[in-house]
Amino acid sequence: MKISVCGSGSWGTALAQVLADNHHDVSVWGIMEEEVKDINENHQNSKYFPKIDINPNIQAFSDLNRVKGSDLILLAVPTGAIESVCLDLNEILDKKTIFINVAKGYHPVTHERLSVVIRNTIKEELLQDVVSLIGPSHAEEVILRMLTTVNAVCENEESSKLVQQLFSNGYFRVYRNRDVVGAENGVAVKNIIALASGILEGIGGGDNARAALMTRGLAEMARFGTFKGGKPETYLGLTGVGDLIVTCTSIHSRNFQAGLLIGKNDSADLFWKTNTKTVEGVNACKVVYEEAVKNHISMPITTEVYKVLYENAKPSEAINNLMNRELKSED
After folding, report:
1. Residue 65's CB: how many other CB atoms inside 10 A?
2. Which of 128, 216, 271, 327 is deepest in the core (most CB within 10 A)?
3. In whole angstroms, what is the distance from residue 243 CA to residue 226 CA?
4. Active-site residue identified among 2, 104, 190, 228
């Protein structure tokens, strides 16, 4: 099988290495010539993984036309670029292809989940299926071949089994999940809670506070996801509590790092002025907040993070608002 990875960033590179380690024919498309050259000539992607050698069988290219003939295409580009890349692929592909989505978030305008964006954008005659490969995973550990488990999420069991078999090995284990709605909402909403976790750390919150935040954050994830049609049990799995734990506690998490900066400054102002990275929770927060307001879904943590990001609220005031909400039963 010919597998093309669209995106030469950290996650695209790490997953390409998993496939190369499994002896598959995999290549990486990137728009940054220095990354493409680094992969081909030095067998490294130094921008993301300094001094780490990657599987030498990975080849990279900057001409998107070279994905033509691919049996599978893995989309490892930022959420905001998925639609435009898919439109470009419509003009290149010449046969039905399985798309693997690894991003976690929503379309910024339509609020659609990303597998829906792909299905609505790729021409019907070119689309065989969409599988989301998502779960608690940081590229910084996968590139070192550290133990990781994720989910291949698709309603079509044959497609998820194929992706499961392609990626699974001694350090990267893939499970299957058919709850596409629940899983994709879970991994998107947890980025908002990870922002909150970083904020909490930044303003001096302790272990007790972090445990409370993650627990109540999980409740928000489940409340939002089940309203959208997801299954409650999904939030006890890898795309629920699993992804929540790793993103809320790891320094590798861009969402946690962004929240940490915001918390330390008791303001989002410096973050907006200096951030150059893709922090998916920032867009997800806006989407989920707007959906929650429209549909009367109680999302207090999401609401306070939204106020911090978009209404200049102070994180210290946001924490105070959460702690002084009307007393209630735990549900």
Report:
1. 10
2. 271
3. 17
4. 190
Compute the distance between CA of residue 308 and CA of residue 77 in angstroms, rounded to an integer: 27
Residue 190 is among the residues annotated as catalytic for this protein: yes
Structural domains for the chain: 2-177 (3.40.50.720), 188-323 (1.10.1040.10)
**Taking a C-beta distance cutoff of 8 angstroms, is the pair 160, 177 a contact?**
yes
The residue whose two tokens read 């299957």 is 176
Cα 30 to its chain centre, rounded Å, is 19
Complete edge-to-edge strand list for the sheet that includes strand 2-6 = 59-61, 25-29, 2-6, 72-75, 97-101, 127-134, 148-153, 172-177
Q: What is the pLDDT of residue 277?
A: 87
Residue type at position 293:
V
Rounded alpha-carbon distances, angstroms, from residue 202 to 100, 230, 319: 35, 33, 12
Residue 318 has phi, psi (to 5 degrees) of -60, -45
Cβ atoms within 10 Å, residue 57 = 16
pLDDT of residue 106 exceeding 90: yes
CA proximity to 186, closest of 147, 224, 154, 145: 224
Confidence bin at 112 (pLDDT 50/70/90) = very high
Judged on CB neighbours under 10 Å (0-12, 13-18, 19+), 32 is middle
pTM of the entire structure?
0.95
Residue 331 has pLDDT above 80, yes or no: no
| Secondary structure letter of residue 301 according to DSSP | H
The mean of the pLDDT values for the chain is 97
Burial 129-165 (b: 16+ CB within 10 A, else e): bbbbbbbbbbbbbbbebeebebbbbbeeeebbebbbe
Which tens digits make up the pLDDT trace of 244-301?
A: 999 999 999 999 999 999 999 999 999 999 998 889 999 999 999 999 999 999 999 9
pLDDT, position 1 = 87
Spatial separation of the C-alpha atoms in residues 71 and 3, rounded to whole Å: 6
pLDDT at 315 over 90: yes
- CA dist., res. 210 & res. 35, Å (int): 37
